[in-house]
From TrEMBL:
It is found in: Cytoplasm. GO terms for cellular component: cytoplasm. GO terms for molecular function: homoserine O-acetyltransferase activity. Its EC number is 2.3.1.31. This is Homoserine O-acetyltransferase. Substrate binds at residues 225, 355. Pathway: Amino-acid biosynthesis; L-methionine biosynthesis via de novo pathway; O-acetyl-L-homoserine from L-homoserine: step 1/1. Transfers an acetyl group from acetyl-CoA to L-homoserine, forming acetyl-L-homoserine. Keywords: Acyltransferase, Amino-acid biosynthesis, Cytoplasm, Methionine biosynthesis, Transferase. PANTHER family: HOMOSERINE O-ACETYLTRANSFERASE. It catalyses: L-homoserine + acetyl-CoA = O-acetyl-L-homoserine + CoA. Residues 50-360 form the AB hydrolase-1 domain. Pfam families: Abhydrolase_1 (PF00561).
Amino acid sequence: MAQNMGEDGRFGLDRRTKLLGPVRLDSGVQFAPVEFAYETYGELNGDKSNAILICHALTGDQYVASTHPRTGKPGWWTRLVGEGKPVDPARHCIICINVLGSCMGSSGPASFDPGTGEPYAMDFPVITIADMVRAQAILLDHLGIERLACVIGGSMGGMQALTWASLFPDRVQSAIVIASTARHSAQNIAFHEVGRQAIMADPNWQGGNYYGSVDQPDAGLAVARMAAHITYLSEEGLTQKFGRQLQDRDTKTFGFDADFQVESYLRHQGLSFVERFDANSYLYITRAMDYYDLAEEHGGVLAKAFSGTRTRFCLVSFDSDWLYPTIESKRVVQALNAAGAAASFVELSSPFGHDAFLLEAPEMNRIIDGFLKAGGL
């Protein structure tokens, strides 16, 4: 099904397909047709027992281990995925799917509505994390993959991994959940709302109908990215990297230019983000994360979401992550223990906050490698 080298010479193979579906959304909408953009690495073995699904985070995409076609940068998890890495295409068939609602090829607000021939914009249906997972299941059915050896994800990807194990327990042999949570807190929702309001306050947003316009809501989206990026870091990490260092000049300007290096860094993050992401997708996906509460449909009892599960779980948190602190992972572990699930957990030390799982983390890699091999992978 998959191969190591894409037709364009890139590591991995970029794939796109449109399926009739439909995806039954939590809102009650039967959404169809569904476009999927995904990357594959490695090959399915004879009994199709080596498939690993990697789920991306809010601003991620399917280019987990191959060059991004828009930015030219390496894949976002090349430290974990690749030859000789814990997730290795020599042993595993690796799939990474752009989530429903995103802007990198899967159906989202920027996609064309077949009924009107125009972009959906804000007429795209409201989606949830569970909707993303149901869509992924439809694609895996199409690919002939009935069972996943492992689902791996960090942050929003971890939410998807937990949801996979809850919605489709018979299809998931194991799950690795990193720097994540089983529900979004009020603080998480508040930060997202600041970002959404920044986008919608941009006059170029035009109520979401900016597709085809010369002027895009870039300023609002850049501010949203800046605000969110602060939550991905830690005070220790920011202090180590920037402190109160001024830009390379002898005097302060006392104006609104970027006097401090940390200001310049955040502005760069915002400006580079608008080159690859869609403002409406940001609105939809952050709202999906805010709706996320895995226990809600189980009477508020998280353990019931995993009742009778035979999935093996590995959870990893980082001590400097204040977006999804260790207590959130511990709540999930407690629920898994109450459900009788096989679960292991470790908190790792890092100065890099929530983003630690995307950076150099040899101890995390060692844990993931051991967990996979213990399961015969």
